[in-house]
Automatic annotation (TrEMBL):
Its EC number is 5.4.2.9. The gene is aepX. It comes from Pseudomonas nunensis. Belongs to the isocitrate lyase/PEP mutase superfamily. PEP mutase family. PANTHER family: PHOSPHOENOLPYRUVATE CARBOXYLASE, PHOSPHOENOLPYRUVATE PHOSPHOMUTASE. InterPro entries: ICL/PEPM, PEnolPyrv_PMutase_core, Pyrv/PenolPyrv_kinase-like_dom, Pyrv_kinase-like_dom_sf. This is phosphoenolpyruvate mutase. Keywords: Isomerase, Metal-binding. GO terms for molecular function: phosphoenolpyruvate mutase activity. The keyword GTP-binding does not apply.
Amino acid sequence: MDTETRRTHLATLFNSKRCLRVLEAHSPISALLAQRAKLEVAPGQSVSYDAIWSSSLTDSTQRGLPDIEILSPSNRLHGIREIFDVCSMPLIFDADTGGKSEHFAIHIKMLERAGVSAVVIEDKCGLKKNSLFGTAVSQEQESIEEFCEKIRAGCASRDSQGLMIIARCESLILDKGMEDALERCMAYVDAGADGIMIHSRKKDGLEILEFARLFRLQCPQVPLICVPTSYSHLRFEVLEKAGFNAVIYANHMLRSAYLAMRDIADGILANGRTLEMEPRCLGIDEILDLVPGTR
């Protein structure tokens, strides 16, 4: 797939499908697995993933680095290009805060040329901390006007309308309330954001469903995205019905892979051999079949 087609495909999917399934991919092999995942739910009817998510958390974690915006987009572009070499799915890029407006404008050009389909920036400032810490650590939001200026700078930097810029609102994460979240998101849309990602750490999911209801009253057509890491009990169909246009499973490929690797490493030490661990490993034949051209 050429760069232009890949970049514009996500916007096409938003227009043609009610809700997209998006899975985190932190390496070429995880992207291949995401692309090949398919489940038949009824005769002649199947579900699969529509796009992949490049997470700043998983990209930094796999390098043994803290999730504090230590990696810039330029640090991560090589890995994205490796993913694009083997995977044709559109990619949504987690750009943390986006940095300074001037830097964000330059990064937009870089990501656009690489073939990234959408860039998400969050409305926090200062040293970035993972959102799921909530108010347990010091986290501050940028002013509405400053963040809107960053959105406008990114939009003006694009060479085409193929790359989507999505604004992520942290008001619910920081206990600022529903009114603040809605006010900010309306301003971000007015500033040119092509979509909104709303984040919540409330485990019952009621907050996120209420936000979707209220947002849809004011913005019936703007793509709305959620990341159900905290409210993992809510099924895709529930979020789709609530009005979300994309559901991102944002870190599960890396979390599951590293859990398995830890247990295998411990198990080999405990047993003094690999026999007991073999059932928990992908078969060599499957590995050989997974990557085209190996045989």
